Fold this sequence. Notes:
Number of helices: 7
Mean pLDDT: 93
Distance between the termini: 22 Å
Structural class: alpha+beta
Number of strands: 13
Largest sheet: 6 strands, antiparallel
Radius of gyration: 23 Å
Order of helices and strands: EHEHEEEHHEEEEEHEHEEH
Helix content: 25-40%
Low-confidence stretches: none
Amino acid sequence: LIIRVDQLIGGGxxxxxxxxxxxxxxxxxxxxxxxxxIGPVEVLQKAGIEPVLELPGVGQNLQDHLQLRxxxxxxxxxxxxxxxxxxxxxxxxxLEYLLFRKGPLSxxxxxxxxxxxxxxxxxxxxxxxxxxxxxxxKFGEPLHKFPAFTASICDLRPTSRGYVNVTDxxxxxxxxxxxxxxxxxxxxxxxxxxxxxxREIVSQDAFKPFKPVEHLPGIQYQNNDELAHAxxxxxxTIFHPVGTCKMGKTDDxxxxxxxxxxxxxxxxxxxxxxxxxxxITSGNTSSPTIMIAEKGSEMILQDRERLLR
Length: 309
């Protein structure tokens, strides 16, 4: 069955002759399940939805990579901030792209990435950098007029867990999304360490000719509590939500799907998207989600062949 969510808005239902595959993502999939009566009973009843199947894990276990956007002003070097605010700069960027398909307009969102450890005792890297030769207050707003670069760093293995819960039975209304960022001592400590590591990197000799000055969050934040608070101020999502339809063993009360991505306790229904990850990956989630789709499609075909034998 293939049907767009917007085709159901305003009422209506859909049925499949063989199997229904739900792939609406870590926000959409749990919301659709809950509005179908599948999920935590207390959440469903509060939203005015009659429970069909009690699955406490639906919409829970939400995980995401919180990126901490640090900004440093620099001198003696051009950044995209100046080009953006210059008519000549804008024209040159446009011409470079039109004539050669090169330049700033052809760049990826980040021009530098790096993985590192928050502490020497960590076995594998648990922090990731995304660096851009530009800066701005918020996404969608104009770039700053001063030259600067942004070094965003995120905790790849957060221990904070949030939720996605519907608040009514209207398919057109958005669910309540609560990532619960920095809600554990481990995440707050690591966020403070990440900001310190960034300062150490920028203080190295290679940066001295450009006289970097911390613009965000600000050098006034020093101890762990202050830096953890600052992390909450400068932190934004990096759009990696996962985990809200967790895969697990059938005797796991928090599990939503089994190892074949079948919704536990429900026949003919699978979830195939990032929501099935029990734990967020230590890196970007796009490739792992593609892998889930590829593996899921293989299992669907294999199971169908068995039925047809």
